[in-house]
Each structure stands twice: as structure tokens, then as C-alpha cells.
Design a protein that fits this description.
It is a single chain. By secondary structure, the protein is mostly helical. Among the domains are: 48 residues; 47 residues, S15/NS1, RNA-binding (Helix Hairpins, Orthogonal Bundle), CATH 1.10.287.10. The chain contains six helices and no strands. The longest helix has 24 residues. The two termini are 34 Å apart.
Length: 144
């Protein structure tokens, strides 16, 4: 399948095996992992950064095998999940940074086109998440 805003094909990559077996070399227990996830989520850290921290700093290869669910599902279970999904909030941040850039550099036509692309992705994600019930229908992306 082709990319959304370019004529290029996507890069293929390998996927991690979906084994739910905790490796024997891992010395992490469930309570410690739960505590780390809840503490970092309360600080406002997104689920992907929590996973990277647990993988790189704590040596936990697969949090799903230890917790029995994904990090985001565990965050939702403990009511510490963010209100806006991570991919949508990242796109909104990117659009605001690009809008600030375009205020300084008004002739940057390439990035003005990219801003339109980012905002169309935001609208598509909003439509998807509101249909799934993740976002309320009253949520609105404001350009300013």
C-alpha cells in the first residue's frame, strides 16, 4: 500500500513475535512494572515512552507478557490514560510548531503544504476516534 501524501511505497520491516512467555533471564516482577507504569503515566509520559524506558533502562523486553495487557490498556484500567490519543496529540503538537515556523518564514511553501497534510491527518484521526468513542463529538482542533 502506498503512503498517504506521497507516491512512495512503505518500508517493510520485521515484527516482534507475539509470544506471551516471559523470558527466564528477565528479573522483573509484575508489581514493580505496574508501579513504574502508573508513576510515569501520572507524570504525563505517553505509553510509547514508558515502553521505551522499560525496555532500555529496566531490561524488560515485553511488558505485555508481564502485565497480561498492553501498557495503554493497563493505563486505562487504572484511569491514568491520556484523554487525547498519543498519535493525535503528536500531530497537533507538530502542527503548532509548524505554524510558528511559518509565521517567521512566510515564503516557505513546502512546509505550508506539509501543514495542510498534517491538518488533514488530524481531521481523519478525529473522525476515526469519534466514531470509535475514544474522543467526544465536541472535541475540536483549533488551528490557533
Amino acid at each position: 500500500m502506498a503512503r498517504l501524501h506521497s507516491r512512495k511505497k512503505g518500508k517493510s520491516g520485521t515484527k516482534r513475535p507475539k509470544s506471551l512467555i516471559v523470558p527466564e533471564w528477565t528479573s522483573a516482577d509484575k508489581a514493580a512494572v505496574e508501579e513504574i507504569v502508573v508513576k510515569m503515566a501520572r507524570e504525563g509520559t505517553p505509553a510509547s515512552k514508558i515502553g521505551l524506558y522499560l525496555r532500555d533502562q529496566q531490561g524488560i523486553p515485553n511488558v505485555r507478557a508481564i502485565l497480561g495487557c498492553t501498557i495503554l490498556a493497563y493505563m486505562r484500567k487504572n484511569n491514568v490514560a491520556p484523554e487525547v490519543p498519543e498519535d493525535l496529540s503528536t500531530l497537533v503538537k507538530r502542527a503548532t510548531h509548524l505554524r510558528l515556523h511559518l509565521k517567521s518564514f512566510k515564503k516557505d511553501t513546502a512546509n505550508s503544504v506539509k501543514l495542510v497534510h498534517i491538518e488533514s491527518k488530524i481531521q481523519r484521526l478525529f473522525k476515526y476516534y469519534s466514531a470509535k468513542g475514544v474522543l467526544p463529538k465536541s472535541w475540536k482542533y483549533e488551528q490557533e
